[in-house]
Amino acid sequence: MEDDETIRAVGQTILQMHGYTILQARNAKEAIHLAEKHQGPIHLLFTDVVMPGLSGPELAECLTSIRPDTKVLYTSGYTDKVRTQHNLMGLSNAFLQKPFTPETLTRKVREVLDSVPEPLHSSHRS
5-91: what CATH class? Predict the structure, then answer.
């Protein structure tokens, strides 16, 4: 999910060249519609943090409520201030700073796809 057409096209080309199947969306509404209609799994949401309409984290919340197994990789060209504002500072493994190279994009996508999700709740025995 990327609102900049050039970045979206370049990212799609790079990832397709590495064997990934891509569903692309220009905005959050389009991304949610795709997630609702797509028949197969969606393994990863790659989204910009700052976008018109819903932010990347808001989109991720909506999309993962529809598809809870979907992992999320955020990107932004802004500084750590944006990451702090959107509570993304703890997501260093799921964040890719713009600009990025084809190598850093493909490495980070693979890293997030291979990551083990952290449990939502930890239980403690007394």
Answer: alpha beta
